[in-house]
Amino acid sequence: MKVLVTGFDPFGGESVNPALEAIKKLDGRIIADSVVTICELPTVRRKAIVALREAIFKIDPAVIIAVGQAGGRMEITPERVAINIDDFRIKDNEGNNPIDEPIEPFGLTAYWSTLPIKKMVEVMRENGVPASVSNSAGTFVCNHLFYGLMHQLCIEGNKRRGGFIHIPYLPEQVSRSPGQPSMSLDMIVRGLEIAIEVALTTAEDCQLTGGTIC
Amino acid sequence: MKVLVTGFDPFGGESVNPALEAIKKLDGRIIADSVVTICELPTVRRKAIVALREAIFKIDPAVIIAVGQAGGRMEITPERVAINIDDFRIKDNEGNNPIDEPIEPFGLTAYWSTLPIKKMVEVMRENGVPASVSNSAGTFVCNHLFYGLMHQLCIEGNKRRGGFIHIPYLPEQVSRSPGQPSMSLDMIVRGLEIAIEVALTTAEDCQLTGGTIC
Amino acid sequence: MKVLVTGFDPFGGESVNPALEAIKKLDGRIIADSVVTICELPTVRRKAIVALREAIFKIDPAVIIAVGQAGGRMEITPERVAINIDDFRIKDNEGNNPIDEPIEPFGLTAYWSTLPIKKMVEVMRENGVPASVSNSAGTFVCNHLFYGLMHQLCIEGNKRRGGFIHIPYLPEQVSRSPGQPSMSLDMIVRGLEIAIEVALTTAEDCQLTGGTIC
Amino acid sequence: MKVLVTGFDPFGGESVNPALEAIKKLDGRIIADSVVTICELPTVRRKAIVALREAIFKIDPAVIIAVGQAGGRMEITPERVAINIDDFRIKDNEGNNPIDEPIEPFGLTAYWSTLPIKKMVEVMRENGVPASVSNSAGTFVCNHLFYGLMHQLCIEGNKRRGGFIHIPYLPEQVSRSPGQPSMSLDMIVRGLEIAIEVALTTAEDCQLTGGTIC
């Protein structure tokens, strides 16, 4: 079996993207008898989805995990749901900033992640990695890619599992612009390793509250 | 035309619910030639939706706005999307705390609000009322009711418009348990009046970014 | 007896200062048999203290309460301690931004407020006004004035009582730059009335925890 | 030359204290030709200061850095000022929770850190360690010890330099009680090494804003 893990190039004025730095450490790794292949995607609407689809066709993975930077978050957060909207507060890397445009004009309103997100969070915590479920992936390129991924997997009949994981800033990013939480690269890589292993070995997700009141 | 505005009874150990206090001030009010009717709903899964449906059948409103308390938020936040999941971190008022159960087992994954949420936020801000779009209504009874409302409106062919608005704590709640943002009852009522008027008079929503990066 | 209440002119790009708006509502008011006199101060280091001293000499108040805007705070916060340092992150209204300069080169490191800050918080809360003690007034013009006030009162032998109260943004400020907590002008005025009354009528402060762990 | 670095035992229901874990890694280390000696202190008012004084007399260090856990902070934060007050929101490890009692009844209101806190922050950031100056060490045992340390150093004529550094939770603490920022032990140790080296080699502190508006 193969696992595809993707990361974006830097955006929003940053010179690094923690997702990209983290997945580089996972390239070629064998986890639960499966090979990890990585793919760098452009932080550009539509082009990110096109590049992801090509990688899926080429690599034919059983599991796809897209990873993205979530500035301001303090934990590794597997996302629960992707919504069919682009509402960009800042420009993407080619200057697009759509407001309230659908990602897929005839697509469903939303897709659930098909990864065992609760189990991922549980095992990360057991291993000392700060983690929580997130109930919104935002409305920028991360949600855009997540929706595009789940739409593609749905069209194919959901024979592959996939989803999106947001990760915090790296300490080096925060030491340049103080006042934000961060997580060490080692801890992020450890969390993603666990997420991959759980995705490959867990048939049914566990019962763990990951809800919010509002 | 008629407008139905709903609020919940107090929950989570609170003795008041700002939504209920606010809608009481709106009962019988005429806004944009329409009469406002209010309805108190139980903070109980399923029962909240049943009571809402009964009120819709009885009153036959053109617009339905459900209002709920969002402890910790500092602005009035019209919600963008309701998702088909119950994942209760705390118990509702009858002791239910489902984890990852669908609200409607054969329902869509999510519904958009059919209210002009961007215009509501724009006009509230123009009138000095702090407001922002929210991209997650949580996974508790508020989202549950919001989903149930949009499902009902969809089944009926979307001849009525509807959605959900979260409001902050009242100052009196916060003065009992310090360290949280609050909003005066007058300001909340003013914001809801504006929301109702905009809902009744706006055909097409405006272009205003209400997105988040993550 | 007379009470002097001061507020600053707008700073940091704002067109209003909630402190100034609030104290205008208190001008000439009789509270606990005392007359409230107000004074607008420039948001400029040194000049703020000079103008305050002049007002004290002219009015000869028994109680002085300096009020200032605390953007980002959600409650009315009487300050506990003023420290002898200027470390301005932004420029004041005449372009000064000193780093680590003492306010009074031969002054004490810090002064305590001589207002009954715990009782003020207690009575505000009893009256539904969100309030907490603050343990840092920052290092900008607010702390500068607070230190200058306490230094002056000390030199005079502490025959007058005085201190500083920080207040949140107004809703109108937040509706122009969303994502911050605010408090209605009425609530701020109500809180300051209570603070003045408590300052005039309370000999000994009460035992109420206002501490922080760090 | 010798450097004394202290940490507290766990408190507030935690089973570890990151300060203690971090300083254990520094024991016996040679930094800038000086030997690091560590000392574990009880999280108990008065007893913490007594134990610190004994360690100072025994070890005779040129520099003393007290380290403490600051739950909720996301950076390493050298403290600027210690204030002469105990106002404990929670009990210390022997059940004391004084409200508004002075630490030293005849002591100064406050003491500045005599460490080069701005330079420490600057060099930590240059090395990718998230850091900021803090303007309040709280009113619990951390501030208590910090005040006791500076009082002792003052009495001795300030022939030694000293101060206090707050550090975030460890990831393992946060993975047990989610929703808080954390920092890896390696990063904390790296930050403290830098702080020690800067303290030993910097005569005059640098000009770097570490102020807050309020």
From TrEMBL, chains A, B, C, D:
Gene Ontology CC entries for this record: cytosol
Active site as annotated: 79, 142, 166
Keyword vocabulary terms for this entry: Cytoplasm, Hydrolase, Protease, Thiol protease
Localization per Swiss-Prot or TrEMBL: Cytoplasm
A GO term, aspect molecular function: pyroglutamyl-peptidase activity
Catalytic activity: Release of an N-terminal pyroglutamyl group from a polypeptide, the second amino acid generally not being Pro
Family of the protein in this entry: Belongs to the peptidase C15 family.
UniProt name for this protein: Pyrrolidone-carboxylate peptidase
